[in-house]
Amino acid sequence: MMTIQEAKEQIEKSVRIYLMKDEYGNYRIPLERQRPIFLLGAPGIGKTAIMEQIARELNISLVTYSMTHHTRQSALGLPFIVSREYGEEKFDVSRYTMSEIIASVYENMEKSGKKEGILFLDEINCVSETLGPSMLQFLQYKIFGNHRVPRGWVIVTAGNPPEFNRSVREFDVVTMDRLKVLEVEPDYEAWKIYAQKKGLHQAILTFLDIKKEDFYQIENTVDGRNYVTARGWEDLSEAITLYEENGFEVDQTLVAQYLRNKRITGEFAAYYELYNKYRTDYKINEILEGTAGHAVNKRAKNATFDERISIMGLLLEAVLPQIRENIELEDALKELMPHLKEIKAALLGGASGAADGTQAGGGTLGLTDASRGGVDARALLSEKIDEWKANMDRLEAASGLSGAERRKWQYMIRFAREASQKIRLVAADTNEAAFAVIQTEFASRVEIMREDAKKISRYLENIFRFAEENFGDGNEMLVLVTELTVNYSSARFIAEHGCDLYYKYNKKFLLYERNRALMDELEKLTQNEEIEESLLI
């Protein structure tokens, strides 16, 4: 048995070797010898999610199908008769239209422009009895009906053990011998890394930090089957976030719609109520601003360990979304910059330099150079919008867009629209004037990003001072440092902007050495990409 994270690593290695080619472009392992991967595990542990991550990280496509709804006709194709001549005789021969599954792979290749990918077939051990005999041929030769899965596409399958699904048909030895079987078990620590990156509600994470045994439960009782899954926690997180935004009450009735276990439902609902009380009592905003009074500090010092962990969760809940938004804004601005340089070259005849009109050596750009006739700034921005939308469509078709990636492209599109509208409103009638508007709009967003980063850095220092004053270097500080270290956005933010108290306690807890590889990787991201140098057009 392995965790979902370990399974992800194994699948990624398999995909990599299956896609290796020789000097002539032939796949080193022929398609027929590429054993499909069979991911066997309980429902709701994130099997589909890791496939999306692998496809994005390897820059290949992903086509996902659930086999539960497929009949023999949809999977294999519909039969039809063709006439064939063999020797001097004519015969009617059965053929099949292209399988819906195979056709979707070709459609994906056309939309995404990618020729390699993963065909992920979920619930593979729940296929209908009529389709069952064809699965052996598919697993061995990658053929449905008369049509083969295109070369360069790796087959990954998944299913639940029989105890979780009455529709499961256990594979025989002949079938299993054609699969690479990975048995996965629920693991909170592995899931938590994913949950932090996804930005799940901090109340859920702090609750599960205290009650790890409640992360995943499936049991039969006199009242029927009770279950709590990773999928349930993630869906509940989204519901809580939107309920809070709308001012709706988060109560046991809501929680019970996602967590089908009376005990865990009751305990989490009670914890959430207490969590909200801490949010008010501890005046989280005052702690962030460094203005928390004596009463707050005294209560924190006298709090139980569970309450202290909740305080750390509330502080992280307040600062981590801001860090994530700041990192995403920086990434969007960096992605936007070369496109704006292209527009500048088109409008001003190829001049390039800094957004404020100064070159790196201190010279002044010729922003008053003669305009290029026939070039329209708003038309160029419109072309960029069309280009970015097409990129989004291709990436979506390939392996889906993560939330951060989607927001990046949407931010760029919104910037172009707002800049175009501003050019029209101020009636910029020359190329120089039009580009000056674009520069100003870009520079204002860079300034917002910088000011937000300064504010976040101040918040982090104040959080550490609060924890240091009230909890010393105990487990509460260890939780704080660990959470900031394993969260990609916060680790990257600290690598770029620094935080003295973080580094102090990171080294004290020996996390610095344990995470040196991660920190080195983050430092590479920022080398020669200082914001003062890179976010200039």
Describe, in plain words, how this protein is organized in 3D.
The chain has 537 residues and is an alpha/beta fold. It has a five-stranded parallel β-sheet with strand order 2-5-8-1-9, sandwiched between helices. The chain has a two-stranded antiparallel ribbon with strand order 3-4. It has a two-stranded antiparallel sheet with strand order 6-7. The chain has helices at 4-18, 47-58, 72-76, 100-112, 132-141, 173-176, 188-198, 202-210, 230-246, 252-255, 262-281, 284-289, 294-302, 305-348, 377-399, 403-425, 431-471, 475-486, 488-497, 500-508, 511-514, 516-526, 531-534, and strands at residues 37-41, 61-66, 79-86, 89-96, 117-122, 143-144, 147-148, 153-159, 180-184, 217-221, 224-228. 35% of the residues are buried. The protein is built from 23 helices and eleven strands. Strand 6 and strand 7 (147-148) form a beta hairpin. The protein has three domains: 4-70 and 106-185, Rossmann fold, CATH 3.40.50.300; 190-324 and 458-534, no CATH class; 333-451, no CATH class.
